[in-house]
Amino acid sequence: MRRILILLLSALLLLVLAELAFRFVFGFIFPSHHGNKLLAELTGRVLSDSGPIEGAIVRYQGDSQHVLTHADGAFALPAGFGHVTAWKDGYFIAGISADVRPLQIRLRKLPDTDNDGYSWIDPAPHPEQTHNCGNCHPQIYDQWKSSGHARSATNRRFRNLYEGTDWQGRPNVGWSLLKEHPDGAGVCAACHAPTAKPSAELGYDMRQMVKSDSGLSGVHCDYCHKIAGPDEGEVGLTHGRYGLKLLRPKQGQLFFGPLDDVDRDEDTYSAFQRDSRYCASCHEGTVFGVPVYTTYSEWLASPARQRGQQCQHCHMAPTGQMTNIAPGHGGIDRDPARLGNHRFFVDSQLDMLRRCLKLKIETQPDGDKQRVAVSIQTDGVGHRVPTGFVDRHLVLVVAARDEADNELQPLAGPHLPKIAGDVRGQPGRLYAKLLKDFNGQSPVPFWRADSRPEDTRLLPGQTDVATWLFPAAVQRVRARVLYRKFWPKVAEAKGWPENEMEVQKVEVQIRNKP
């Protein structure tokens, strides 16, 4: 009897080991049991209130592989355990346990019209507000909170230019959109505060509209995840919220996102979330006839676009540190390479600038002089450098010294113009989109500028080379690339701190003397 019992236990153990081996060999393809029958595949149907749905995407939640439903709504997945989800364009995502029989997933249609009376959700975590984004998505919220999008309506430099104040809030200092061009008061809000309702009663003053927006400001989570697609307006002439189609529900909730298997009954997938056109309404803008923001058109002409790389490829590149977008709130562990970074700069803006610029110095004798060539190459960037707001610029500064450490002036080569501020007159190059007024004066704000700026910014995937001739006594040469947020004259008048960052620096000793 004891021997029979041992044989039975051994047989049972062999069956268990065989099943474990099967699971190991086939990876995610785990066999599913229905009663006592081992299934080779998992079958089911996707339906709506009006009947079967053809072409729906079906997958095990979190799996990279999917299948499509047939005309009768039927699908077949490799046998497995867990949760099965389905989605099709125009529907909410839905899901069901793989153990349910019959396995039928019912999809619910999205609303037909946008609800203009919708109340926006505050992104900040709050224990009494169940939908607040930060409650369930703490890592994403922390990334967004440190981004420029979170500060788009409150950024002090932006507000100083808008209202004519300085860093300390003193009025009537330097450039002022409201004072010089009051008819343009509401233009900025379309991008900087897209959920603030335009109000003639408030004079379209963005500051007052933001105050009336229940404390919400900036480009926040709920706004971005209510974008259904592009609107019909022309890119560059239709700004911010006016260039995007929103879909806000009258009842319940609706969020557009980049994952097609989030089945909380209030989510839907949107390929548009990973499309550069998604960014274009705010990052391409001709304002008062002046091309102020041209990042999207720069991308359209770039090698990155030809390679199929979208804006999100760089600016939402995963950090590799986040594996669950809603830990403890129904989220599942996912491949960290599929979860986007919501800071929009991997590490920081300075780090991204440093990665995309390569600086090099080459020297050679030229008769009894020394020829110095400095090259800047842009690499891994999908637009001009710098891009974004029109006043951003790069300054290449070159300095040469002799054996006694005396600074030497070049005998030939470009010098920095007056607009470069404290480095004017020094050997170097300016890379900028330089706005001038109708009298040829610069710098000027875009609302006073001629519509034809002089653009010397670096092109993506190309190399710019500048050459100088120095006296034979030169012993070493140093080149620096400085990034400036605004023109020095403007920054000084407004009292703005930290206007300049050193992006690259290279120094060489001269060995091949004349």
Residue fraction in strands: 25-35%
Q: Ends: how far apart?
A: 102 Å
Shape: globular
Q: What's the count of strands?
A: 25
Mean pLDDT: 91
Q: Could you tell me the radius of gyration in angstroms?
A: 30 Å
Multimeric state of these chains?
single chain
Name the features:
514 residues, alpha+beta, Immunoglobulin-like, 4-stranded mixed beta sheet, 14 helices, 25 strands, 25% strand, globular
Please summarize what this structure is.
This protein has helices at 2-25, 133-136, 138-145, 156-163, 177-180, 189-192, 206-211, 221-224, 277-283, 295-300, 303-306, 311-315, 349-356, 488-494; strands at 32-34, 37-39, 41-48, 51-52, 57-60, 67-68, 74-78, 83-87, 94-97, 104-106, 227-230, 244-246, 255-257, 267-269, 284-287, 290-294, 357-366, 369-378, 393-401, 407-408, 428-434, 454-455, 463-471, 476-484, 500-509. The protein is an alpha+beta fold and 514 residues long.
